[in-house]
Amino acid sequence: MVIDMSDTSDRLLYAAINLIAEKGYKAVSTKEIAKEASVSEMTLFRHFGTKQGILEAAIDRFYYSTSMKELFEKNIVWDLEKDLFMISESYHKLMKKNQKVILIAFKEGNSIDGLYNQINKHPRQLKELLIEYFLEMKQQRKIKYEGNVEGLAMAYLYMLYGEFVSRNFVEGHQITSIDGDEFIFSAVQLFVNALKEKDNNFSAV
């Protein structure tokens, strides 16, 4: 998502994410955020009300749910391998771009009331998009899967998320030497080989 630094709201949100990720939620004041964004504190209050209000708005602005929803609406071609590659690569690019939001979640999740729910609505929405995708692929008889489709969506989401976290946030404990592209290739091939209909003779569940 493009940040418009000529827009007052965007400048405030960008400043809030950067400062909170660097110093912690409690250590950053609304006055400091406003100063970083080159506006008055009153302007911040007028736009977002409170410090928690600006953090919640920043998470919604800079996390990935809107981008992923647009991707599913516009870029899906109903080819399992192509779609999973596209979803996985886009997910990793967005997560990399929004590392500061994720860092705030790790650092502040237990100290800010409602923060986990605010952040978790993004993976929940992605899970629902994946469920809808896999159900439609079953309906089109392009995959064969007899289990709970929510479990399938969760397995794919956790695989992507787990690899991203271990690579970017677990210092000294990275469990693989392969790069992100190699991981995505392996993950996609695993799911394609497990789900791809090969004989067109199964009964849809």
Automatic annotation (TrEMBL):
<feature type="DNA-binding region" description="H-T-H motif">
    <location>
        <begin position="29"/>
        <end position="48"/>
    </location>
</feature>
<feature type="domain" description="HTH tetR-type">
    <location>
        <begin position="6"/>
        <end position="66"/>
    </location>
</feature>
<dbReference type="InterPro" id="IPR001647">
    <property type="entry name" value="HTH_TetR"/>
</dbReference>
<keyword id="KW-0238">DNA-binding</keyword>
<protein>
    <submittedName>
        <fullName>TetR/AcrR family transcriptional regulator</fullName>
    </submittedName>
</protein>
<keyword id="KW-0678">Repressor</keyword>
<dbReference type="InterPro" id="IPR050624">
    <property type="entry name" value="HTH-type_Tx_Regulator"/>
</dbReference>
<dbReference type="InterPro" id="IPR009057">
    <property type="entry name" value="Homeodomain-like_sf"/>
</dbReference>
<dbReference type="Pfam" id="PF00440">
    <property type="entry name" value="TetR_N"/>
</dbReference>
